[in-house]
Amino acid sequence: MTDVDEAITRAHHEEWARVVASLTRRFGDLDIAEDAAAEAFAVAVERWPLDGVPPNPGAWLTTTANRRAIDRIRRESKRDDKQKEAVAMHDDTPHEPLGAIEDDRLRLLFTCCHPALAPEARIALTLRMVGGLTVPEIAKAFLVQETTMGQRITRAKNKIKAAHIPYRVPEAADLPERVSGVLAVLFLVFNEGYLSSGDHENAVRSDLTLEAIRLTRLVRALLPDDGEVAGLLALMLLIEARRTARVSATGELVRLDEQDRGSWDLALIAEGHALVRERLAVVANGGPGPGRYQILAAINAVHTSVRDARDTDWSQIVALYDQMIRVDASPIVRLNRAIAVAELDGPEVALAEIDRLDLDDYHAFHATRADLLRRLGRSGESRAAYDRAIELAENAAEVALLTRRRDQLGRI
């Protein structure tokens, strides 16, 4: 990859959401915004190798995209109708101040997560418009065909247009009922960056993790007393703190117990721990019990509170997963609990638990089984489980780890 190619890829990762959000604010139409942004990047692919990378790629892309959007509107035979729709979408009607937070991407996030849209449509649209993921990448995450996902995103954009859903952060009274859907989407954006499912050279996409954190900070400024917002921010910070230690120099995923903890970001860990302690104090003083994100943050706080993996308090982690199951009894939560049980009660007990789970299409299920079977000396079964995990895994760094561990089993 040339330096210009790298600059274009980096600009797409870093500037896509900003360009789309800026155009959406100006023109009030997600289709126009997305198409014009895509055209601007296509022009960059043609021009930058010849003219050089501009000093401010984001400004160049935004200017180019604006010109393309104006050209498209001028070509439309029903230009007046388009402009009326844009005015309705922009919704400049004064509303209650929300702490003077002015951020186009936050407005775009709330627009994409409007309750009028079906939950799966909110997630897909946000991953496309805010996260900048391609339709094939989103289709992979949802395990559906690309055409199906493309149609889902198109229907969501059409509904926003037809219902005149405004491009703005909702009023204060509407925030609590809207925030859970927004947090779910932000966590998915973060997870896609944390362990990328697309065909990227980098197993970790820091542009997505950092943008998810940035937006979550803004949501927290809107709702400073919301425990789940604080919990999600703490969770993201504690995971992000380990980012540089998660992939080896050879491109292989590094397990938590094998990471160089000296390379963890101590400032992020301190901030995450402070948020967890803050929420624990609220609960101890009679506040509402912790939700999913707060419990996950507490689990990660336990992991990041020791400098040696051997000192991890697995009994506390199992207890937190027991609490988590009362909130979310999904098979994936039970799988993660079983991983902790293996450290506390041994691999045989954990294997008995996960073999009751219906997760045959989930690569982490087979990877966990493979590890437990290896620890029990059942190499043949372990190899078969690794094979299935490798078949299902999409992240290159994770495939590299699983392949090495499988090959270490030797020949039977």
UniProtKB/TrEMBL annotation:
Provide the RNA polymerase sigma-70 region domain boundaries: 18-78
Q: Name one GO biological process term.
A: DNA-templated transcription initiation
Report which superkingdom the organism of origin falls in.
Answer: Bacteria
Sequence ranges assigned to domain RNA polymerase sigma factor 70 region 4 type in this UniProt record = 109-160
Biased composition of type Basic and acidic residues is found at: 76-95
> NCBIfam families given for it?
sigma70-ECF
Q: Which family does it belong to?
A: Belongs to the sigma-70 factor family. ECF subfamily.
Spell out the protein name for this chain: RNA polymerase subunit sigma-24
